[in-house]
Amino acid sequence: MAVLPVLAAILIFPQYPIIPLITGILLLVLLLSFSPGEPQEWLSASWDFAKQILPLLLLGVLVSGSYWEHLLAAGELFLTLGLRFSWRNSIC
Fold this sequence. Notes:
The protein is mainly α. The protein contains five helices and no strands.
């Protein structure tokens, strides 16, 4: 029964594959949250783990992104990558 909304989303939105994916994920979460016993415990443990690791992942992306942004703004990105590039020579 849970596969019917996903199939409907595939048929209605064939050009947007993200919609059936999100529909399937939401249905899985709903099924697990209303199933007593081990599935509900698994969902709860997965959510607790996600709450622990997501801030660290976001902080890592922020730090590494700002590092690369700084290198690009300072003009040192190409030197770091071992490339010799001059902005003056690239403009015709």
